[in-house]
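Show me a record, fold above all:
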Amino acid sequence: MRWNSARRASVLWALYTVSACAESASDRMQEEQPANADDDGPRDASPRLDASTITPRADATVRPPDASPVQSDAGDVAVDTLDAGDAVDASMLDAAVPAPEKVLGVTADFLNKTLTVFDVAKLKPGAKRADVQVASVDLSKFTPGPMSFGISPDGKLAIVSISRGFLGSFIDVPAGDGTLVFVDLQTYQVTGELFTGKSPMGVAFSPDSKRAFVGHFSENYFAVVDVEERTFTKVNTGAAYNEEFAIDDTGSVGALTYGAAGNVKTFGVDDPAGTLGQTNGISGDAAGVAFFPGTKIAYLVQAPTTLTFNVGGHNLVDVSDPKMPVSSDEVRSNNHPTVYPITAVAARKSVAFPSTASGKLSVVEMKLDGKVAKESARVEVGAAASLAYGVTATPDGRVLVVSSGEHYLGVANLETGEAYTVPWEVAKSGPTEVKIIPR
Protein backbone atom coordinates (compact mmCIF):
# COMPACT_ATOMS: atom_id res chain seq x y z
CA MET A 1 0.00 0.00 0.00
CA ARG A 2 1.33 3.47 -0.85
CA TRP A 3 0.36 6.65 1.01
CA ASN A 4 0.11 10.23 -0.22
CA SER A 5 1.59 13.11 1.75
CA ALA A 6 -1.59 14.08 3.56
CA ARG A 7 -2.33 10.54 4.72
CA ARG A 8 1.30 10.09 5.69
CA ALA A 9 1.12 13.23 7.84
CA SER A 10 -1.97 11.88 9.61
CA VAL A 11 -0.24 8.59 10.33
CA LEU A 12 2.86 10.27 11.69
CA TRP A 13 0.76 12.58 13.87
CA ALA A 14 -1.09 9.55 15.22
CA LEU A 15 2.19 7.85 16.06
CA TYR A 16 3.47 11.02 17.67
CA THR A 17 0.33 11.30 19.83
CA VAL A 18 0.47 7.64 20.86
CA SER A 19 4.11 7.99 21.82
CA ALA A 20 3.58 11.18 23.78
CA CYS A 21 0.48 9.88 25.54
CA ALA A 22 2.21 6.65 26.47
CA GLU A 23 5.16 8.48 28.02
CA SER A 24 2.95 10.96 29.84
CA ALA A 25 0.75 8.20 31.22
CA SER A 26 3.78 6.29 32.43
CA ASP A 27 5.25 9.37 34.14
CA ARG A 28 1.99 10.29 35.87
CA MET A 29 1.35 6.76 37.07
CA GLN A 30 4.82 6.64 38.58
CA GLU A 31 4.20 9.96 40.34
CA GLU A 32 0.83 8.88 41.75
CA GLN A 33 1.83 5.33 42.74
CA PRO A 34 2.27 5.08 46.57
CA ALA A 35 5.79 4.48 47.81
CA ASN A 36 4.74 1.18 49.43
CA ALA A 37 1.67 -0.92 50.01
CA ASP A 38 1.21 0.40 53.55
CA ASP A 39 0.96 4.00 52.44
CA ASP A 40 -2.62 5.18 52.99
CA GLY A 41 -2.16 8.40 51.06
CA PRO A 42 -4.71 9.48 48.44
CA ARG A 43 -4.63 7.83 45.04
CA ASP A 44 -6.51 8.33 41.76
CA ALA A 45 -7.85 5.01 40.57
CA SER A 46 -8.36 6.41 37.05
CA PRO A 47 -5.52 8.82 36.28
CA ARG A 48 -6.36 11.10 33.34
CA LEU A 49 -4.04 12.78 30.89
CA ASP A 50 -3.89 16.54 30.74
CA ALA A 51 -3.27 17.81 27.23
CA SER A 52 -0.97 20.45 28.61
CA THR A 53 1.42 17.72 29.74
CA ILE A 54 1.84 16.23 26.25
CA THR A 55 5.17 17.25 24.80
CA PRO A 56 6.88 15.83 21.74
CA ARG A 57 9.90 13.58 22.08
CA ALA A 58 13.17 15.33 21.54
CA ASP A 59 14.13 12.92 18.77
CA ALA A 60 10.78 12.99 16.95
CA THR A 61 10.87 14.38 13.43
CA VAL A 62 7.15 14.51 12.75
CA ARG A 63 4.71 17.35 12.47
CA PRO A 64 0.96 17.47 13.08
CA PRO A 65 -1.38 17.27 10.07
CA ASP A 66 -2.20 20.75 8.90
CA ALA A 67 -2.85 22.57 5.67
CA SER A 68 0.74 21.96 4.60
CA PRO A 69 1.42 18.29 3.89
CA VAL A 70 4.60 16.61 5.01
CA GLN A 71 7.17 16.99 2.26
CA SER A 72 9.65 14.24 1.56
CA ASP A 73 11.49 13.20 -1.54
CA ALA A 74 11.40 9.66 -0.26
CA GLY A 75 7.64 9.62 -0.72
CA ASP A 76 5.85 6.95 1.26
CA VAL A 77 5.94 5.18 4.57
CA ALA A 78 5.03 1.68 5.68
CA VAL A 79 3.09 2.01 8.93
CA ASP A 80 3.87 -1.49 10.11
CA THR A 81 7.59 -0.73 10.21
CA LEU A 82 7.14 1.94 12.91
CA ASP A 83 6.70 1.50 16.63
CA ALA A 84 4.93 4.09 18.79
CA GLY A 85 8.09 5.70 20.20
CA ASP A 86 10.29 5.48 17.15
CA ALA A 87 11.59 8.56 15.51
CA VAL A 88 10.61 8.95 11.88
CA ASP A 89 12.93 10.57 9.38
CA ALA A 90 13.03 10.89 5.62
CA SER A 91 15.41 7.98 5.23
CA MET A 92 12.69 5.63 6.52
CA LEU A 93 10.05 6.83 4.08
CA ASP A 94 9.44 4.48 1.17
CA ALA A 95 12.23 2.19 2.37
CA ALA A 96 10.00 -0.69 3.43
CA VAL A 97 7.28 -0.91 0.79
CA PRO A 98 7.98 -0.75 -2.96
CA ALA A 99 5.71 1.10 -5.33
CA PRO A 100 2.67 -0.93 -6.38
CA GLU A 101 3.33 -2.62 -9.69
CA LYS A 102 1.72 -1.12 -12.74
CA VAL A 103 -0.68 -3.20 -14.77
CA LEU A 104 1.00 -3.37 -18.16
CA GLY A 105 -0.30 -4.57 -21.50
CA VAL A 106 1.36 -5.45 -24.80
CA THR A 107 0.23 -5.09 -28.40
CA ALA A 108 1.63 -6.78 -31.50
CA ASP A 109 1.76 -4.02 -34.10
CA PHE A 110 2.05 -6.49 -37.00
CA LEU A 111 3.34 -4.88 -40.22
CA ASN A 112 4.75 -1.97 -38.23
CA LYS A 113 7.16 -4.58 -36.77
CA THR A 114 7.02 -3.53 -33.14
CA LEU A 115 5.60 -4.60 -29.83
CA THR A 116 4.18 -1.78 -27.70
CA VAL A 117 4.22 -2.09 -23.91
CA PHE A 118 1.66 0.24 -22.33
CA ASP A 119 0.34 1.35 -18.94
CA VAL A 120 -3.26 0.18 -18.58
CA ALA A 121 -4.03 2.90 -16.00
CA LYS A 122 -3.28 5.57 -18.60
CA LEU A 123 -5.88 4.30 -21.08
CA LYS A 124 -8.35 7.16 -20.91
CA PRO A 125 -10.63 9.02 -23.33
CA GLY A 126 -8.50 11.42 -25.36
CA ALA A 127 -5.25 9.48 -24.83
CA LYS A 128 -3.02 8.31 -27.66
CA ARG A 129 -0.40 5.60 -27.86
CA ALA A 130 2.35 8.11 -27.02
CA ASP A 131 0.54 8.90 -23.75
CA VAL A 132 0.37 5.29 -22.56
CA GLN A 133 3.51 3.74 -24.01
CA VAL A 134 6.08 2.37 -21.57
CA ALA A 135 8.40 0.72 -24.09
CA SER A 136 8.62 -0.34 -27.72
CA VAL A 137 10.33 -3.54 -28.89
CA ASP A 138 11.95 -3.32 -32.32
CA LEU A 139 11.21 -6.39 -34.46
CA SER A 140 12.16 -4.82 -37.80
CA LYS A 141 14.51 -7.68 -38.73
CA PHE A 142 11.64 -10.18 -38.73
CA THR A 143 9.27 -10.64 -41.70
CA PRO A 144 6.31 -10.47 -42.14
CA GLY A 145 5.76 -9.05 -38.62
CA PRO A 146 4.43 -9.89 -35.15
CA MET A 147 0.88 -11.17 -35.65
CA SER A 148 0.26 -12.87 -32.31
CA PHE A 149 1.99 -13.76 -29.06
CA GLY A 150 1.61 -15.42 -25.68
CA ILE A 151 2.90 -14.25 -22.30
CA SER A 152 4.24 -16.62 -19.65
CA PRO A 153 2.25 -16.79 -16.39
CA ASP A 154 5.27 -15.45 -14.49
CA GLY A 155 5.13 -12.32 -16.66
CA LYS A 156 8.75 -12.55 -17.73
CA LEU A 157 8.57 -13.71 -21.34
CA ALA A 158 6.62 -13.20 -24.53
CA ILE A 159 6.80 -15.70 -27.36
CA VAL A 160 5.87 -13.85 -30.53
CA SER A 161 4.50 -15.40 -33.71
CA ILE A 162 6.08 -13.73 -36.73
CA SER A 163 3.50 -14.77 -39.31
CA ARG A 164 1.11 -14.03 -42.14
CA GLY A 165 -1.48 -16.31 -40.55
CA PHE A 166 -4.76 -16.08 -42.39
CA LEU A 167 -4.44 -12.31 -42.74
CA GLY A 168 -2.46 -12.84 -45.94
CA SER A 169 -5.72 -13.96 -47.56
CA PHE A 170 -7.34 -10.57 -46.93
CA ILE A 171 -4.64 -7.89 -47.07
CA ASP A 172 -1.24 -7.40 -48.68
CA VAL A 173 1.25 -9.13 -46.36
CA PRO A 174 4.93 -9.70 -47.24
CA ALA A 175 5.81 -13.30 -48.02
CA GLY A 176 7.64 -15.40 -45.49
CA ASP A 177 7.33 -18.58 -43.45
CA GLY A 178 7.63 -16.72 -40.17
CA THR A 179 9.23 -17.84 -36.92
CA LEU A 180 8.97 -17.55 -33.14
CA VAL A 181 10.76 -14.73 -31.33
CA PHE A 182 11.49 -14.68 -27.58
CA VAL A 183 11.15 -11.26 -25.91
CA ASP A 184 12.25 -10.57 -22.32
CA LEU A 185 9.47 -8.50 -20.72
CA GLN A 186 11.80 -7.15 -18.03
CA THR A 187 14.43 -5.73 -20.39
CA TYR A 188 12.21 -5.47 -23.49
CA GLN A 189 14.90 -7.15 -25.57
CA VAL A 190 14.79 -9.99 -28.08
CA THR A 191 16.61 -12.94 -26.52
CA GLY A 192 16.17 -15.69 -29.07
CA GLU A 193 14.47 -17.14 -32.14
CA LEU A 194 13.09 -20.61 -32.90
CA PHE A 195 11.59 -21.90 -36.13
CA THR A 196 8.86 -24.41 -35.26
CA GLY A 197 7.00 -24.43 -38.58
CA LYS A 198 5.33 -22.22 -41.14
CA SER A 199 2.92 -19.48 -40.11
CA PRO A 200 2.84 -19.83 -36.32
CA MET A 201 -0.26 -18.33 -34.72
CA GLY A 202 -1.78 -18.69 -31.25
CA VAL A 203 0.56 -19.22 -28.29
CA ALA A 204 -0.37 -20.46 -24.79
CA PHE A 205 1.84 -21.39 -21.83
CA SER A 206 1.77 -24.14 -19.24
CA PRO A 207 1.08 -22.78 -15.73
CA ASP A 208 4.74 -23.22 -14.70
CA SER A 209 5.90 -21.06 -17.66
CA LYS A 210 8.25 -23.86 -18.78
CA ARG A 211 6.41 -24.92 -21.95
CA ALA A 212 4.51 -23.11 -24.66
CA PHE A 213 1.96 -24.48 -27.12
CA VAL A 214 2.05 -22.96 -30.60
CA GLY A 215 -0.48 -23.46 -33.39
CA HIS A 216 0.58 -23.38 -37.05
CA PHE A 217 -1.71 -22.24 -39.81
CA SER A 218 0.30 -23.99 -42.53
CA GLU A 219 1.30 -27.21 -40.76
CA ASN A 220 -0.60 -30.33 -39.64
CA TYR A 221 0.65 -30.15 -36.05
CA PHE A 222 1.09 -27.88 -33.08
CA ALA A 223 4.44 -27.37 -31.39
CA VAL A 224 5.24 -27.87 -27.72
CA VAL A 225 8.18 -25.60 -26.94
CA ASP A 226 10.67 -26.18 -24.12
CA VAL A 227 11.13 -22.56 -23.08
CA GLU A 228 14.50 -22.98 -21.36
CA GLU A 229 16.09 -25.28 -23.91
CA ARG A 230 14.55 -23.49 -26.92
CA THR A 231 13.60 -26.79 -28.52
CA PHE A 232 10.22 -28.23 -29.52
CA THR A 233 8.27 -31.38 -30.24
CA LYS A 234 5.34 -31.87 -32.61
CA VAL A 235 1.83 -33.05 -31.76
CA ASN A 236 0.11 -34.14 -34.96
CA THR A 237 -3.46 -32.93 -35.50
CA GLY A 238 -3.99 -34.41 -38.96
CA ALA A 239 -5.01 -31.10 -40.50
CA ALA A 240 -3.72 -27.63 -41.19
CA TYR A 241 -5.20 -24.33 -39.91
CA ASN A 242 -4.08 -24.97 -36.33
CA GLU A 243 -4.87 -21.54 -34.97
CA GLU A 244 -5.88 -20.65 -31.41
CA PHE A 245 -5.29 -22.15 -27.96
CA ALA A 246 -7.04 -21.88 -24.62
CA ILE A 247 -6.04 -23.42 -21.30
CA ASP A 248 -8.43 -23.57 -18.36
CA ASP A 249 -7.59 -21.55 -15.26
CA THR A 250 -6.39 -24.62 -13.33
CA GLY A 251 -3.80 -25.12 -16.06
CA SER A 252 -4.72 -28.77 -16.53
CA VAL A 253 -6.60 -29.00 -19.86
CA GLY A 254 -6.47 -27.18 -23.16
CA ALA A 255 -8.27 -26.75 -26.47
CA LEU A 256 -7.04 -25.90 -29.97
CA THR A 257 -9.13 -24.73 -32.92
CA TYR A 258 -8.00 -26.46 -36.09
CA GLY A 259 -8.98 -27.45 -39.59
CA ALA A 260 -11.59 -26.02 -41.91
CA ALA A 261 -14.42 -27.64 -39.98
CA GLY A 262 -15.82 -26.42 -36.66
CA ASN A 263 -14.19 -29.00 -34.41
CA VAL A 264 -11.45 -28.57 -31.80
CA LYS A 265 -8.62 -30.69 -30.48
CA THR A 266 -8.48 -31.11 -26.71
CA PHE A 267 -5.61 -32.30 -24.51
CA GLY A 268 -4.18 -32.60 -21.03
CA VAL A 269 -1.51 -29.96 -20.48
CA ASP A 270 0.93 -32.37 -18.81
CA ASP A 271 0.76 -34.91 -21.66
CA PRO A 272 -0.74 -33.32 -24.79
CA ALA A 273 0.20 -36.13 -27.20
CA GLY A 274 -0.95 -38.92 -24.87
CA THR A 275 -4.30 -37.31 -24.02
CA LEU A 276 -5.24 -35.83 -27.39
CA GLY A 277 -8.96 -35.89 -28.17
CA GLN A 278 -11.31 -34.05 -30.49
CA THR A 279 -14.92 -33.08 -30.94
CA ASN A 280 -16.86 -34.58 -33.82
CA GLY A 281 -19.72 -33.41 -36.01
CA ILE A 282 -19.50 -29.68 -35.26
CA SER A 283 -20.20 -27.56 -38.31
CA GLY A 284 -18.67 -24.20 -38.98
CA ASP A 285 -15.24 -22.56 -38.91
CA ALA A 286 -13.78 -22.88 -35.40
CA ALA A 287 -12.06 -19.61 -34.56
CA GLY A 288 -11.41 -18.39 -31.01
CA VAL A 289 -11.86 -20.49 -27.89
CA ALA A 290 -11.80 -19.62 -24.17
CA PHE A 291 -12.78 -21.39 -20.96
CA PHE A 292 -15.38 -19.91 -18.68
CA PRO A 293 -13.48 -18.99 -15.49
CA GLY A 294 -13.66 -21.68 -12.83
CA THR A 295 -14.81 -24.37 -15.27
CA LYS A 296 -13.56 -26.81 -17.86
CA ILE A 297 -16.26 -25.67 -20.27
CA ALA A 298 -14.92 -23.82 -23.29
CA TYR A 299 -16.85 -21.32 -25.37
CA LEU A 300 -16.05 -21.96 -29.03
CA VAL A 301 -16.60 -19.20 -31.58
CA GLN A 302 -17.73 -20.28 -35.03
CA ALA A 303 -16.75 -17.59 -37.51
CA PRO A 304 -18.97 -16.91 -40.52
CA THR A 305 -16.99 -17.68 -43.70
CA THR A 306 -18.47 -16.59 -47.00
CA LEU A 307 -15.97 -18.60 -49.04
CA THR A 308 -17.16 -21.87 -47.53
CA PHE A 309 -20.72 -20.77 -46.68
CA ASN A 310 -20.11 -21.47 -42.98
CA VAL A 311 -22.63 -19.78 -40.70
CA GLY A 312 -21.44 -18.03 -37.56
CA GLY A 313 -22.40 -18.92 -34.01
CA HIS A 314 -21.00 -20.84 -31.05
CA ASN A 315 -20.64 -24.17 -29.27
CA LEU A 316 -19.84 -25.20 -25.73
CA VAL A 317 -17.20 -27.89 -25.22
CA ASP A 318 -16.78 -29.73 -21.92
CA VAL A 319 -13.13 -30.75 -21.56
CA SER A 320 -13.37 -32.51 -18.19
CA ASP A 321 -11.96 -35.56 -19.97
CA PRO A 322 -9.69 -34.21 -22.72
CA LYS A 323 -9.66 -37.56 -24.49
CA MET A 324 -13.45 -37.44 -24.81
CA PRO A 325 -14.67 -33.83 -25.05
CA VAL A 326 -18.42 -33.28 -25.15
CA SER A 327 -19.91 -30.55 -27.33
CA SER A 328 -23.30 -28.93 -26.76
CA ASP A 329 -25.32 -25.73 -27.17
CA GLU A 330 -24.84 -25.48 -30.93
CA VAL A 331 -26.14 -22.06 -31.98
CA ARG A 332 -26.00 -20.78 -35.56
CA SER A 333 -27.59 -17.74 -37.16
CA ASN A 334 -27.66 -16.34 -40.69
CA ASN A 335 -26.11 -12.91 -41.20
CA HIS A 336 -24.01 -13.50 -38.09
CA PRO A 337 -21.54 -10.67 -37.37
CA THR A 338 -17.86 -11.19 -38.13
CA VAL A 339 -16.21 -12.73 -35.08
CA TYR A 340 -12.95 -14.50 -34.41
CA PRO A 341 -11.05 -14.09 -31.11
CA ILE A 342 -12.37 -14.53 -27.58
CA THR A 343 -11.06 -14.00 -24.06
CA ALA A 344 -11.98 -15.08 -20.54
CA VAL A 345 -13.01 -12.24 -18.21
CA ALA A 346 -12.00 -13.60 -14.82
CA ALA A 347 -13.38 -10.68 -12.80
CA ARG A 348 -16.88 -11.30 -14.20
CA LYS A 349 -16.73 -15.11 -14.61
CA SER A 350 -17.57 -14.66 -18.27
CA VAL A 351 -16.08 -14.66 -21.76
CA ALA A 352 -16.13 -11.84 -24.30
CA PHE A 353 -15.41 -11.39 -27.99
CA PRO A 354 -15.30 -8.55 -30.54
CA SER A 355 -18.07 -8.50 -33.11
CA THR A 356 -18.04 -6.46 -36.32
CA ALA A 357 -21.22 -5.58 -38.23
CA SER A 358 -22.38 -2.61 -40.34
CA GLY A 359 -19.06 -0.84 -39.92
CA LYS A 360 -19.17 -0.95 -36.11
CA LEU A 361 -17.10 -2.92 -33.62
CA SER A 362 -18.77 -4.10 -30.43
CA VAL A 363 -17.69 -6.27 -27.50
CA VAL A 364 -20.15 -9.04 -26.59
CA GLU A 365 -20.08 -10.76 -23.20
CA MET A 366 -21.42 -14.28 -22.67
CA LYS A 367 -22.15 -16.05 -19.38
CA LEU A 368 -23.07 -19.62 -18.55
CA ASP A 369 -26.73 -20.10 -17.76
CA GLY A 370 -27.08 -23.73 -16.81
CA LYS A 371 -26.04 -25.73 -19.85
CA VAL A 372 -26.19 -22.88 -22.36
CA ALA A 373 -24.37 -19.62 -22.96
CA LYS A 374 -26.35 -16.38 -23.00
CA GLU A 375 -25.44 -12.84 -23.91
CA SER A 376 -25.09 -10.68 -20.80
CA ALA A 377 -23.71 -7.42 -22.20
CA ARG A 378 -22.98 -5.72 -25.51
CA VAL A 379 -20.91 -2.53 -25.76
CA GLU A 380 -20.28 -0.60 -28.98
CA VAL A 381 -16.63 0.44 -29.19
CA GLY A 382 -16.05 2.28 -32.47
CA ALA A 383 -15.90 2.18 -36.24
CA ALA A 384 -14.42 -0.91 -37.86
CA ALA A 385 -14.63 -2.35 -41.35
CA SER A 386 -13.01 -5.71 -40.69
CA LEU A 387 -12.56 -8.30 -37.97
CA ALA A 388 -10.65 -7.55 -34.79
CA TYR A 389 -8.02 -10.21 -34.17
CA GLY A 390 -6.88 -9.33 -30.65
CA VAL A 391 -8.86 -9.18 -27.39
CA THR A 392 -8.03 -9.45 -23.67
CA ALA A 393 -9.47 -8.56 -20.27
CA THR A 394 -7.98 -6.37 -17.54
CA PRO A 395 -7.89 -7.47 -13.89
CA ASP A 396 -10.81 -5.12 -13.12
CA GLY A 397 -13.02 -6.68 -15.80
CA ARG A 398 -12.72 -4.24 -18.70
CA VAL A 399 -12.17 -5.65 -22.18
CA LEU A 400 -9.44 -4.39 -24.51
CA VAL A 401 -9.73 -4.99 -28.23
CA VAL A 402 -7.52 -3.91 -31.12
CA SER A 403 -8.56 -3.00 -34.65
CA SER A 404 -5.73 -3.43 -37.16
CA GLY A 405 -7.51 -1.68 -40.03
CA GLU A 406 -8.47 1.38 -38.00
CA HIS A 407 -5.26 1.34 -35.92
CA TYR A 408 -6.73 1.73 -32.45
CA LEU A 409 -7.04 0.01 -29.10
CA GLY A 410 -10.60 -0.01 -27.79
CA VAL A 411 -11.64 -0.13 -24.14
CA ALA A 412 -15.08 -1.49 -23.21
CA ASN A 413 -16.54 -1.34 -19.69
CA LEU A 414 -19.01 -4.21 -19.52
CA GLU A 415 -20.43 -2.96 -16.22
CA THR A 416 -21.30 0.60 -17.30
CA GLY A 417 -21.63 0.15 -21.06
CA GLU A 418 -19.07 2.89 -21.69
CA ALA A 419 -16.34 2.59 -24.32
CA TYR A 420 -13.70 4.65 -26.07
CA THR A 421 -10.78 4.17 -28.45
CA VAL A 422 -7.10 5.08 -28.14
CA PRO A 423 -5.40 5.83 -31.49
CA TRP A 424 -2.35 3.61 -31.83
CA GLU A 425 -0.55 5.97 -34.22
CA VAL A 426 0.77 3.37 -36.64
CA ALA A 427 0.73 3.62 -40.42
CA LYS A 428 0.49 -0.02 -41.49
CA SER A 429 -1.81 -2.90 -40.56
CA GLY A 430 -1.85 -3.27 -36.79
CA PRO A 431 -2.17 -3.77 -33.95
CA THR A 432 -3.35 -7.37 -34.31
CA GLU A 433 -2.98 -8.69 -30.77
CA VAL A 434 -3.24 -7.42 -27.19
CA LYS A 435 -2.56 -9.09 -23.84
CA ILE A 436 -2.03 -8.16 -20.20
CA ILE A 437 1.28 -9.01 -18.53
CA PRO A 438 0.54 -11.22 -15.48
CA ARG A 439 1.79 -9.91 -12.12
About this structure: The radius of gyration is 29 Å. The chain has two helices and 29 strands.
